TrEMBL record:
Keyword check for tRNA-binding: no
Key word Ribosomal protein present: no
UniProt name for this protein: Peptide chain release factor domain-containing protein
Naturally occurring in which organism (per UniProt): Rubroshorea leprosula
Boundaries of every Peptide chain release factor domain copy: 117-213
Residues of the signal peptide: none
InterPro entries: PCRF, Pep_chain_release_fac_I_sf, Prokaryotic/Mito_RF
Amino acid sequence: MNGITTSCTARILCSLNQLPPGNLLCSRSRRSFVIARPRLALRAPRIICMAESYLITKLESAEKTWKELSVRLADPDVVSNPGEYQKLAQSVAELDEVVSTFRRFKDCEKQLEETKALAKEESIEEDMAEMIQSEISSLSSQLQELEEKLKVLLLPSDPLDARNIMLEVRAGTGGDEAGLWAGDLVRMYQKYSEQNSWKYTPVSSSEVCLVTAI
């Protein structure tokens, strides 16, 4: 019986020795042999863009169009044609904010991906892990805000958006206080126009009324 057991043990050990190193793990007890495969290292999951695929497609198309228009603006033939140059410059200006926001979105997404990969390392101390989780939360919020902003920027523009407006402010019922309120409201619109680099021209005014063209 001992001879059979020894022979069987020798055959098993011989078979295990013939296997490529690292493929199998073997542990032996008094009565049995346990063969187990090593655990494969888990790869960090790829960070999927938070934005919908259709949104990314539109943004990439807008960025491509912006690059093409920017190249055309440097064309001497376009520069020598004021009408065409102004038209192209306006088209580029309309896409400037979309492209710059999209690039910020991509940078933020890349930072979030790198931070999440760092959080998976086993040698990180507890304090550092808390800082990383806080950074992940902050970047996720920024990414969500940028996505919502991009959705608004991609909405079709109204043809009347680029035109001037005539704004008239009249004091309602309330005597002098209503007139003071109307004056404050006009000054508020004027300050808002200055902050956005809009030109405004007062057309007419009175003690209780001021008409401004913006």
